[in-house]
UniProtKB/TrEMBL annotation:
Domain (HTH merR-type): residue spans on this chain: 28-73
InterPro entries the record matches: DNA-bd_dom_put_sf, MerR-type_HTH_dom
Species this protein is from: Gordonia namibiensis NBRC 108229
Protein origin, superkingdom: Bacteria
GO molecular function: DNA binding
GO biological process annotation, one example: regulation of DNA-templated transcription
Protein name per its UniProtKB record: Putative MerR family transcriptional regulator
Amino acid sequence: MTTQTRAKGGQALTAAIDAATDEFGPTMTTPQFASLAHVTDRTIHAWRSKGVGPTPWKVASRWHYSTADVVRFVHGAK
């Protein structure tokens, strides 16, 4: 991979993070993560219980994720 290719990949990731942040805000919930990753909420729950994916935190009864971390995970998982 050339430096130029890496730079374009980095720009694409930055654009994806910006777009997701515009749509979801700086954090997202489990259903939003599932929607972005094209999986079910159950899959997100399974990943979380196995320690797969971005680190969540719980507010009241809802799990939250950093939008930027979710986008990085989804782009890295493909």
